Amino acid sequence: MKAYDLLELAGRNLREAVLRNSLTTLGIGVGVASLVAMLSLGVGLQKLANRQLGRSGLFDSIFVSSGQGFRNGGRSRSVLVPTTYKPLDDAARKTFEKIPSVVDVYPDIRVPSEFRFAVSGKPETSYFALMAGLPPSGHRSEAFDDLQGSFFFGPKVAETIILADFGRELLDVPYDPKNADQKLTPEQTRQLLGQQLTLRYRERQSMQAAPGDSQPADSTSFSVVTREVKLKIAGIVATEPNGGTRGNARVLVPTDFADSLNMIMPGDLRAVIRPSEGKTYPSLVVRVTKSKEIASVEEAIKKEGFTAFSIVDASKGIARFFTFLDLFLGIFGSLALAVASLGIVNTLVMAILERRREIGIMKAIGASDGDVKLLFFVEAGCMGALGGTLGVAIGWTIGKVINLGTNIYLQRQELKPENFWYVPWWLVLAALAFSVIVSLIAGLYPAARAARLDPVEALRQN
C-alpha cells in the first residue's frame, strides 16, 4: 500500500469519529503539555542559576594562592617550619597571563581599613570596614543593576563605591536588619554621593641602604608609614558583588588604584620570612573567556606549583542537583502521557470493533496483515503527532502565563523580575518524538489485533 493511500485512509478514519479521536488527541496534548511545562521549569531554573553566577564574575574566575603555609614539623612544641614555597609574585602573574583563554589577572585585595567621614554639621568620625578591590569587569555584576550614582570613572581613580548599610552607618542612621540590603532613600543618597571619604592605611616602604654603606639593604626589611587618601563616593550598591563569598566588603575601590597604594597585606609576614624578588600577592584572581575553559586553566596553574580554586568546583554538586531535578520532573510529567496512551489503545480497539467489515473487505481485495497493521500504526502516529504539537503549544503557553503572573507578584514586592521558564528547541523536538513513540507503542496491540482478523468472519458481520 502506497504512503499516500495510507495517509488518506488514516485521515478519513480519524474524521469519522471526530469527537472520540479529538478527545484522545487532547489527552495526548495534556500529557505532553505537563511534560514540557515541568522540564522547561527545570531548564529555566538551571539557566537562571547559571546566569546569576555568570554575572557575578565567579563562574569564570579562578582564585590562586601560593598554597603553601607552615607546618608543625612533628615536634612537641608548636614550631613554625616553612614548607616548600613558590612565591606568588609578578613573575607568576605574567606566567598566568600567557595561559591560553586567560583574559585578565589581578590581585585579590581585601584589607580591613579605617575610614573617616564627617556628616554635615558633625565632627569627623572614624569607621572600620573591609575594603576590597574591584576590577573594571566588575560592573557586569547584577549588584550594579540598582546602582545609585555611577561606576568608577577609571581603573586608577581615587573613587569608591560603598554598600548601602555602610552608607547608613556614615549618616548615623539606626541599624535595621530589614533594611540592610535595601537601597538608600533619595535624601540619604544626596548626602553621600560626591562626598569625600578619607582612607587611613599603612603603606609598606622598602628600606634603602644608608649613604656610604658598603652593604646593600636587606630585601626583606621595610618600614610602615601611615598614609591618608581622599576617596570620592561615586556610587552606592545594596549588596556586595560576588555575594560576599570572600568576606563582607563594605567599601569598593578600583583594583589598580588599591594595588598602587602598596598597603600592608595579610601575606606580608610570609614575604618577610620567605623573601622573593619583586612584589608578592596573597592571592590572585584569574579570569577566563568562558566558564568551560576553567578546568584546563586551573590545571595549568596547578602544574606551576600553585593552589587554584574556582566556583565551578563547588558548582558540580549544583549541576548534579539540576540533573536529578530534570529527571524527576520528566518522570512525573510523563505519567500524564502514559495515561493518555491508554486512551489511544481504547480508541483504536473501539475502531476495530466498528470497522471489522471494512477490515475484512480490505483483506479480501488483497490487503496483507502488514498493510492493516501499518494502517493502525499510522492512525496512532497521527494522533501522537497532533497531540504532541498541541501539547507543546499548551506547555509553552502555561510557562509564559505563570512566568508573567510571578513577575507581576515580584514587582509588587519590589523585587527584580526573572525569567525562570525556558523551552529550548531540543525539548520541543524531544517532546514531539516522545509523543509519537508512545502513541506507536500504544498502537501495537490494536494493530496486531486488527491484523489477526479473519476476513471471512469479518465479512459475515452485518
Keywords summarizing the entry:
single chain, alpha+beta, 6-stranded mixed barrel, 4-stranded antiparallel sheet, 14 helices, elongated
What can be said about this structure in brief?
The protein is of the alpha+beta class and 462 residues long. The chain has 14 helices and 13 strands.
Helical fraction equals 40-55%
Arithmetic mean of pLDDT = 76
- The end-to-end span amounts to 27 Å
What is the string of SSEs from the N terminus onward? HHEEEHEEEEEHHEEEHHEHEHHHHHH
Explain this structure to me?
- The structure is a single chain.
- The protein has helices at 3-16, 18-56, 90-97, 164-170, 186-192, 255-260, 268-273, 294-303, 311-354, 356-364, 369-412, 425-442, 444-451, 455-459, and strands spanning 61-65, 70-71, 81-82, 102-107, 110-117, 125-134, 148-149, 159-163, 196-206, 222-237, 251-254, 283-288, 307-310.
- The chain has a six-stranded mixed beta barrel with strand order 5-6-11-8-10-9.
- Helix 1 packs across helix 11 and helix 9 (311-354) runs parallel beside helix 12.
- It is an alpha+beta fold.
- Helix content is 49%, strand content 18%.
